[in-house]
């Protein structure tokens, strides 16, 4: 099963991806996570991407498309995958279509998580992430059992560098100008399902499971 999670920053894509991995046993491909790992490793690509990410801007298409080509060719993607945070521009969406055609695979569903901008800021500035295992929490909506500690591995939770009010505003501007138009692109392909992303996390998960079967 090849799935895409689509939505604004903080819409809940990463949160829902974790439940899908568990149920369907397919990998999550988050371009944001891949870029953050490259920054941590100090690669040339990571250092270049960091400038864009810290400023709330999209990383250039050529970098992102290269990342996806490499990642989709890995063995664990053979039984399917969950795209999270990709594609974000028309050029990326078109490149994905070409790539999937070459691989003789298709996109089964695009799950769009619809959350209004006024709720996004609170979600993002309240997010705490685990730098070791990648788990994500929220101080109010999904607090860890022990304050400041990851439930899964016990590491100290951190706030992502781009999770501040000023950068979130820029990320939302990028989303509306470059990414939101892909909603119509995927609707026209007949694969898009629009979900109310303001519901409780577990209700959204159930709805997605019902859609995917
Ligand atoms: P990326 O890491 O992809 O960030 P994003 O798209 O901005 O998405 P987020 O990770 O912020 O949000 P999410 O939807 O996963 O929400 P989450 O589940 O954590 O990208 C970062 C940067 O990398 C970009 O700005 C760009 O520079 C670059 N980049 C990445 N991909 C790129 C690409 N393809 N092209 C170009 N550049 C690219 O939830 C958020 C919070 O809300 C959490 O605290 C969670 O607990 C809480 N929450 C989740 N669901 C609910 C709910 N239902 N109710 C209440 N709270 C909830």
TrEMBL record:
Residues 127-162 form the Adenylate kinase active site lid domain. It comes from the Bacteria. Pathway: Purine metabolism; AMP biosynthesis via salvage pathway; AMP from ADP: step 1/1. CDD domains: ADK (cd01428). Its main location: cytoplasm. Its EC number is 2.7.4.3. Residues 126-163 are annotated as: LID. Coiled coil: none annotated. Keywords: ATP-binding, Cytoplasm, Kinase, Metal-binding, Nucleotide biosynthesis, Nucleotide-binding, Transferase, Zinc. AMP binds at residues 31, 36, 57-59, 85-88, 92, 160, 171. Pfam families: ADK, ADK_lid. GO terms for biological process: AMP salvage. It is found in: Cytoplasm. Belongs to the adenylate kinase family. NCBIfam families: adk (TIGR01351), PRK00279.1-1 (NF001379), PRK00279.1-2 (NF001380), PRK00279.1-3 (NF001381), PRK14527.1 (NF011100). Monomer. Consists of three domains, a large central CORE domain and two small peripheral domains, NMPbind and LID, which undergo movements during catalysis. The LID domain closes over the site of phosphoryl transfer upon ATP binding. Assembling and dissambling the active center during each catalytic cycle provides an effective means to prevent ATP hydrolysis. Some bacteria have evolved a zinc-coordinating structure that stabilizes the LID domain. Catalyzes the reversible transfer of the terminal phosphate group between ATP and AMP. Plays an important role in cellular energy homeostasis and in adenine nucleotide metabolism. This is Adenylate kinase. It comes from Fusobacterium ulcerans 12-1B. The lineage of its organism: Bacteria, Fusobacteriati, Fusobacteriota, Fusobacteriia, Fusobacteriales.
